[in-house]
Prior knowledge:
The complex is a heterodimer of chains A (181) and B (125).
Chain A: H1 2-17, H2 25-28, H3 35-59, H4 63-90, H5 98-115, H6 119-148, H7 152-180
Helix pairs in contact in A: 1-6, 3-4, 3-5, 3-6, 4-7, 5-6, 6-7
Chain B: H1 2-42, E1 45-51, E2 54-56, E3 59-62, E4 67-72, E5 81-82, E6 98-102, E7 107-110, E8 119-124
Parallel strand pairs in B: 1-4, 3-8
Antiparallel strand pairs in B: 1-2, 4-6, 5-7, 7-8
Amino acid sequence: MKIINSLTKSAICLILSTGLLSFPVSAQKSQKLTDPEIASVAVTANQIDIDYAKIAIKKSKNAQVVEFAKTMEKDHGAVIDKAVALVTKLGVTPKDNATSQSLNAQAVKTRKMLNSKSGKAFDKAYVDNEVAYHTAVIGAVETVLIPDATNKELHDLLVSAVPLFKAHLEHAKMLQKSLEK
Amino acid sequence: MKILVAVLGIRVCLLFPILFLFSCSSPNKKSTANQTEMKENIHKVDTVTINLMKFNPEVLDVTKGDTVIWINKGLVAHTVKSYQPDKFYSDTLQPGQMWKWVMTDSAAYYCTIHPVTMIGKLLLK
């Protein structure tokens, strides 16, 4: 079973790394993440998307893009609030780890790329990144974070966040199509 | 004296039917009021739960006059807005908040924050 789990994680890593963006959870290690590490990864991943949204709210002139970015800022902020409330209740301190650090390192590059663009090129870059980022996050949450979580409440919070991220992904894909016109 | 007794007797005889009529008419009025009250109480209260980014149930059969209550049990804020302009709009419902609407017509509605995926229908029977 451990071998299958390890192979699954390696396969996810391969799939994600061939995309626009990779979510480095499975790239860093094949052993299980601990709950404090999962909490750190969850908060980091949500904060990264809030930071992208803040750039879009500031730079975009497209009302639909700005509206979407405002939703990302609020929704991911709400998920962070829930996660922080849960770890506080459980007395768990989110633990920085290689996955969180790798996510942050990648986010620095993405923010730099977004800040270098303007107008329609910015809108396209932001929305394309949202599609890729949400696809990667959903994959990582479903196949790595949820299976690794041992605390039931943390597990349930991650499960309840997946439909939210999927709704964001569908919204981003719709925007992507409308920007192509 | 006999005349007085006779007059009193006639008055008592007249009073009886009148009192009888009153005693019959009062419950009738009460009964009509009760029936109206019962008709009002027949209207149902239905609940739509907002959870996991869905309106549950997505399609709800309602009768004119029914009250529909939306309860946000989700992670994030949502809204309930009819596609038909100016029909109904809940404003932002934070997690744990609810909003109700008395149905007058069929309506399709959506969440303005998550318009691509969160859609519901109320069908008047």
